[in-house]
Amino acid sequence: MRQEDQLINKYGRDSGYRVPDGYFNELNQRIMSELPPYPEAPRRADMTLWQKLKPYTYLAAMFAGIWLMMNMFHRIADSGRISLDNPPESIASAMFMQSEETPNYSLPENDYELVKEVSYSYDSFNEFEKDFGYDLSFEYDSIELPATDDTSKFRLI
Q1: Segment 15-45, tens digit of pLDDT
Q2: 119 touches 151 (CB < 8 A)
Q3: What's the rounded Cα separation, in Å, for the pair 127 and 94?
């Protein structure tokens, strides 16, 4: 015989605890009577006109931005330089092509190249004075600039 069966035979199934008659019938009513009163739901405040129109205003601003962006793309595409029908060679040449409004100067990158370019462009300080309207002091009159063979490398285009 199992140990559980031996305990049941010795002590029985009665635990000594009993639920009073009608306990579960009245349980719901007693719990509800002891709870605090349920608060009333707060009323929603009425929305202002701006709160009602705000989503539509944002939507209109978004569409205006998209329209402006598409307008700008259309103007750039109508400039005639680049279109999707052009072969890649013409697109590449248009990328490096200068417009008529901006002069194409190859400017020196540092002071040494600037001095070198100016010294190769002029044979004497008198020419430099005439071109730029400077009046240099007398100590520079006797200086001769060195002549070089590679003057085309440093001239302005």
Answers
A1: 778 888 888 888 888 898 999 988 888 888 8
A2: no
A3: 38
Residue 84 per-residue DSSP state: T
Separation of alpha carbons 142 and 148, rounded Å: 19
For 80-131, write each residue's pLDDT tens digit: 555 556 566 665 666 666 555 555 556 556 777 777 777 777 777 677 777 7
The answer to whether the CB of 117 falls within 8 A of the CB of 105 is no
The rounded distance, in Å, linking the Cα atoms of 149 and 13 is: 123
Contact, 151 vs 120, CB < 8 A?
yes
Phi, psi of 50 (to 5 degrees): -65, -40
- Contact between 53 and 59 (Cβ < 8 Å): no
Question: For the whole model, what pTM was predicted?
Answer: 0.28
Whole-angstrom distance, CA of residue 74 vs CA of residue 103: 27
Is the CB of residue 100 less than 8 Å from the CB of residue 141?
A: no
CA dist list (Å): 138 to 108, 125, 146:
28, 11, 19
